[in-house]
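Dear colleagues,

As part of the handover before I leave the project, I'm documenting each prediction I ran so the next person doesn't have to rerun anything. This entry is a single chain, and its sequence is reproduced below.
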Amino acid sequence: MLTSVVAGFLASAVLIIAIGAQNAFVLRQGLRREHVLPVVLVCAFSDLALTSAGIAGLGAVVADRPALVTAIRWIGAAFLIGYAVLAARRALRPEGSLDPTGQAPASLRATLLTTLALTYLNPHVYLDTVLLLGSIAQQHAYHWFFLIGTTAASFTWFALLGLGAQKLGPLLARPGAWRVLDGLIALVMTGVAATLLLGN
């Protein structure tokens, strides 16, 4: 049982630590200190729900419907491109409005909708959680203990990313640093969108 928990933790950690659209958004919310806990919880519980679905057998169902995966891929790419454009506009502004204290805070509803969109409109999330982690879990006799490990990894990572990002506040106190961050976010979003559009 413990082996399954550890295997789940390591497998999930390897997949979620890579910088992607969702991670970039969580990092930015953490740096802005804006609705951080709700964003972290939505991301972590989404991983739990999707991995649970994969272990329960949804992965095989999704794999048999390539048209559905293709539709999600194009919708997700369109959303990511739009978000990349917004981040690029923030990065190109010459004024100091990129300082998180100088921006009007987004509503909790708008922030959660963005979080949900970045999570569920990204086909990579389904490939990683529903298909890949679900398949790996089936190789363990105690696959629901494998889920405990993946869940622990998700909660740990998103908590560190969102709540730990506040420690970087002094480093990013200057507007120029925020312009660089938003520029990097724009590149990440564009890169992920490109992989979705060019994928088979």
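The mean pLDDT is 79. The two ends are 37 Å apart (CA to CA).

All the best with the project,
I.
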